[in-house]
């Protein structure tokens, strides 16, 4: 079906599973007749001539169908049977916030041919405009997936991984332009459509959005990176390595890596992306080399390296990956890092230095140091800045980028502790009444007008512009556990618990102190619910955080120790690296 250069794909069409209609409490839903076990074919193998072929690869079983019968999302993403959220909230069995969160999380499950495949972004009965919150977002599913893994419910994660993999390899277009192969969608929707040639029957189709329908048409660069991170976590947690060893999954990993490692015009080892290509998915002045993408990229590189099967054909890719890991970590640790000492160094920078051994390589003018930062920088602590471009440092503190730099060991051990020190020192600004500020500070006035294009959703201290997002609790928790400082996360969870359930699990909070539920925040936002659960589960069992953590590469430790302790005027070229990267 080709509509305006856009296809709707049917996975069921690929593997020929039959479909039938079932009625659940008056709502029509779709199931795959006679299939307890669903077949997912691997379709992304290359035949050596650049053609994508579609081999049938082994079936996987849905051992324990999830709580569909107790209420959940039917194949078409609509709430199916078993009562409403209000009923659920009123149930006597919901006797703690955690129980309530589990119930809500299960109710957010989306089914595809009767099997759980993901979780809907939000299930807000009070919201009049659904937009795309009824879809399964890749990034939003990560905390859901981790919560299910930690609970020992592996099948939904396996199903999510394999089905999104199939979406990756499909042809996709925007205004007749095809984005690079390997891109993962931002989100997908399960649609129930009439079956060709049989008016009485329907089939489920997965309809992905690669950004071609998203507000602002933003490309989801983070999706593939999160997918790799979740894949590794699945293997580590379940012990089932058969998924990552599958030929189609190996091919999927390589396609993501190839897209990220492809040569471009760029001179930096950091990934160059457009504005809104990650959790902040609309204009917020983060185009260029935003920290969040770099931290996820680094983490995905290390996770992929662990999972890639050694074979002759992939040695070039692995070499490129290894070079990039070294160059990227050096670049971020050296040029994104800021603390009192570094700030003072920038304050005294000479500019217009033309030479290979310039100290001020990016020609940063000291006047760029924003007045708020002079006051804000604690004497103990530091952080990685949001973005670095020629003559431009984005000094805002972005939480996810900093937290995931700790988790992935993109930041050094000292830097990681300093990031947590800063969080403690700036608690009243970053946590206040609800963890955790997405970035600090907000753009205001003329700066807000110019940077966001006068975006009425991203007004100062709202949404992406300094709003507070409860979902970030889980990344905070992983970072704190990794650094053996779980008490910081525990304190944040206690603050969240005071109101998150009472406030109906909002997507985000507004104002400097996070005092209001966000202006346009959805309620019952799944990743707020799942983020809380992951934090609780990990704090109860800190060792489990290892499924997400990347330990420092020992080769890197020795390689950097000599460089980072040297004089700032040293020649900073990295002999072992390809010279095409500025490190
Ligand atoms: C908003 C957020 C994005 C999230 C989506 C679905 O667009 O900015 O990060 O994935 O909502 O919850």
Low-confidence parts lasting 5 or more residues at pLDDT below 50? 1-94, 567-579
What small molecules does this complex bind? Answer: alpha-D-glucopyranose
Number of strands: 17
Helical content band = 25-40%
The outline comes out as globular
State the helix count. 20
Gap between N and C termini, in Å?
47 Å
Please summarize the sheet with the most strands. Answer: 4 strands, antiparallel
Major sheet strand order: 12-13-14-15
Portion in strands = 5-15%
Mean pLDDT: 82
Overall structural class, as computed from helix and strand content, comes to alpha+beta
| Rg over CA atoms | 24 Å
Overall description:
Invertase that cleaves sucrose into glucose and fructose. Pfam families: Glyco_hydro_100. The structure is a single chain. This protein has 583 residues and is of the alpha+beta class. The protein is 38% helix and 13% strand. The protein has 20 helices and 17 strands. The chain has helices spanning 11-15, 85-90, 97-107, 138-150, 155-168, 221-238, 242-245, 247-261, 291-307, 315-336, 340-347, 371-376, 399-407, 413-425, 427-430, 445-452, 472-482, 486-499, 526-540, 554-564; strands at 2-3, 6-7, 20-24, 27-31, 45-46, 52-53, 109-112, 115-119, 136-137, 187-195, 198-209, 337-339, 382-389, 392-398, 439-440, 509-510, 516-517. The protein has a four-stranded antiparallel sheet. The protein has a three-stranded antiparallel sheet with strand order 9-10-11. Strands 1-2 form a two-stranded antiparallel ribbon. Helix 4 runs parallel beside helix 19 (526-540), helix 8 (247-261) runs antiparallel to helix 9 (291-307) and helix 8 packs across helix 10 (315-336). Bound molecules: alpha-D-glucopyranose. Alpha-D-glucopyranose binds at residues 121, 137, 139-140, 279, 281.
